[in-house]
Amino acid sequence: MDFGFTDDQREIQRTARELLTGRASAARVREHAEARRNDDALWRELCDLGWAGIAIAEEHGGQGLGQIELSILCEELGRSLAPVPFLSTVMAATVIEQDGTPEQRERWLPGLASGETVGALGAAVDGTAELVVGGREAGVFVLIDEDGAGRLLSAEDAEVNVVEVVDPTRSAARVSAIGDAGEQIGDGACAGLGRALVSVSSELVGVCDRALGMTVEYVKDRKQFGVPVGAYQAVSHRCAQMLLETEQARSTAAFAAWTADSDPEQLAEAAAMAKACASTAGREVTASAIQAHGGIGFTWEADVHWLYKRAQVDAALLGGAKRHRARLAAILADRVGASAAA
Amino acid sequence: MDLTFSEQETAFRDELRGWLASNQPDPEPADGGEDAHYAWRRDWQRRLYDAGWAAPAWPSEYGGRGASPTESAIYFEEIGRARVPMAANVLGLLLGGPTLMVWGTPEQKERYLAPILSGEEIWCQGFSEPDAGSDLASLKTRAVKDGDEWVVTGQKVWTSGAQYSKWCMLVARTDSEAAKHKGLTYFLMDMEQDAVQVRPLRQITGEAEFNELFIEEARIPDENIVGGVGNGWKVALTTLMNERAGLGFALQIRLRQLLDDLIGIAAERGLLEDPLYADALAELHVRCESIRLLAWKGLTDVERYGQPGPEGSLVKWLWSDTNQRLTQLAVDIVGPEALTFGTSWSYEFLRARGNTIEGGTTEVLKNIVAERVLGLPRLKVAV
């Protein structure tokens, strides 16, 4: 039993953080967010380093590492809020790799692994996915309907309406198939979805961790009534609560990432748990960050609102906490039924 | 990351499971009150002891199995899973013994450890006082030197098992001139003397798990000092650090079982199809799982770095809060039966109120997290 990273995984984490601290500074993220533009130079750099293909099999041009390594990158990118279409690309690639036919994999994975093609994944209701992150620039879409049936669309097959979501560090779009264009992907139960949920959850862990770190720095520094506000328990206990929620999200996401690589039978439940936990934590922790920053936290100038906005979109992506708790309740009910029948 | 047990750990677990499967305690006494209940737990400890399962985490030189932190956690998980009681002398096994192993003299180890393990001598913990709860170091119980003895006067509270105990881990003030944390000394006090009066403290559940101790010129010989005169705070911290190390795993499994029971009841009553109840139960499931994961994650730090990370405080905080939520939801699901005094669900929700107070209040845990984990400044309190 060991929750720690291997030396290689720690190295991935260290180099990713170092690179993003330099290349995705707060000022640079702000510049792109305000212009609603991706940071194309950074995206190219990350792709040259092989990030987009980290978990894609080597035969398809990836690095063939696991969900744990992918989750490390998701967390670091969440922490930095880098304006790149990483999450959407890896989520689409995951589903194509897990559920696609050999032809579908052959056609799309090499481009997704190199980052030449941007991918996007959306949860569809009646054929339309309302919130598809990365939708503006995606060359391939996977839409999963409520029953888990998947539809694979090239950009020509898809009707894409760009939506200006509150989080301007990434694009989003409303996406549906044009007529009956596109192809079926998977056999009706999307196996890749669990991994995609883990990736979003890991990104949320990074967002939470950064929000907590910024808040702790701020409340140590900001003085009122002659003392740092962080000395007041009303503030310090809020920070402790932020840590508790962040660590819950971190441990459930880590567990889910591990099941994806080592115990796939547990993945569906672990992924629902991770997403439920991370969605709640993401909203609560970033909201607390604004509150603890006081008036400055409500200004456009302070960077804390970008985290709040990213957390809101990520929390909703592929279903929020309530949706995933409903899935868990169904799993629990099945389990009770099974043990009653036995 | 590897969330499976090693071969050795699996073998440890299987051996214990096998033993527990063929060695159930006698049926819990239905009446006879707390004394009968305690005698039943003491008998159970004897059986654990005879099979070498009373304290597997103790080094083999003291009669344990030298179990690793992970194996020790497995031990408490399995004890919880088998729904068997903890050994009667839980404070001696988890707190007193390990404290002596760090601070005790060779003579003290020789004298005290074996009877703790066998349950022959029960231990209790005399730390808290009516005016020294969270602010433990402000305690007032005094010990005055008299020849080669110390004369102790004062009052202790929340002393569980005092009525059955032979020895009390007592922290008393031996130097009223010294700074608050410096003037304390850690004693082993013989409970079998008239100068020590034990009064049961009835709690909101109606039972008396705890006691008050009234100490009026009790006598303790020099050789019963642990860790030296004036070093009591450090020794006490060793005791406190051991307090939650293993117990957390037994509590976490107990929470899981309670939740499974509640989900079963909700299913019987068709409430799992009610989205409000389904959501509340699923949320408890997520919390329960995150407690389990945080507890195991904390153990990784202990195994790797020799000391626990922040998870220890987080686990206790989250566990106590979750147990309160769970038992409160149970009142809604079970209905009026859970409000009938004496039923198990009424006991559970009443007892749960103590969880956020005992072993460090949630407020103190938040202070610990804020100051020691996040490095936030400490508010200077007027003294």
What can you tell me about this protein's structure?
The complex is a heterodimer of chains A (342) and B (383). Chain A contains eleven helices and nine strands. A four-stranded mixed β-sheet of chain A has the order 1-3-4-7, covered by helices on one side. In chain A, strands 2-6-5 form a three-stranded antiparallel β-sheet, with no helix packed on it. A two-stranded antiparallel ribbon of chain A has the order 8-9. The model of chain A has no long low-confidence stretch (mean pLDDT 96). In chain A, a hairpin with a 4-residue loop joins strand 3 and strand 4. Chain A folds into two domains: 179 residues, Butyryl-Coa Dehydrogenase, subunit A, domain 1; 149 residues, Butyryl-CoA Dehydrogenase, subunit A, domain 3 (Up-down Bundle), CATH 1.20.140.10. Chain A has 342 residues and is of the alpha+beta class. Chain B has a four-stranded mixed β-sheet. Chain B folds into three domains: 82 residues, Acyl-CoA dehydrogenase/oxidase, N-terminal domain (Butyryl-Coa Dehydrogenase, subunit A, domain 1, Orthogonal Bundle); 113 residues, Butyryl-CoA Dehydrogenase, subunit A, domain 2 (Beta Barrel), CATH 2.40.110; 130 residues, Butyryl-CoA Dehydrogenase, subunit A, domain 3 (Up-down Bundle), CATH 1.20.140.10. Chain B is built from eleven helices and eight strands. The interface between A and B is large, with 49 and 52 residues.
